[in-house]
Amino acid sequence: MDRVERLLRRLALSDERFLRSALADPGTAGASALDAKTQALIRLGALLSVGAATVSLRWTVELAYAAGASEEEIVDVLLAIGPAVGHARVVGVAPNLALALGYDVEEADEAG
After folding, report:
1. In a 10 Å sphere around its CB, with 0-12 CB exposed, 13-18 middle and 19+ buried, how is residue 100 labelled?
2. Residue ranges per structural domain of the chain
3. Is the overall model pTM greater than 0.90, yes or no?
4. From CA 54, how far away is CA 49, in angstroms rounded?
5. CB of 40 within 8 A of CB of 67?
6. Quick check: helix, strand or coil at residue 51?
């Protein structure tokens, strides 16, 4: 059985020990073949897609920065999830992502 099949089987069977280990530390050997930057950007996309709080976004943005992601790549995540989550979700979470990056777009909009 290859690695992919083994991972999918453990996930499908809800292998608690594996899930606890993989979710507690995504960098755990065998948990993911993705590099830290890719993992952080994907995590950011998932958080944006569910409308996560700004504090969660800020933490994940910091992880992405630490892994070498640029501000442009971080904003591109929002554009990349757009077709899957829809226009309303993108518009709704954009101000939270802006705050996580240190911008207050709503204040700037009110100023003119």
Report:
1. buried
2. 1-33, 34-111
3. no
4. 13
5. yes
6. coil
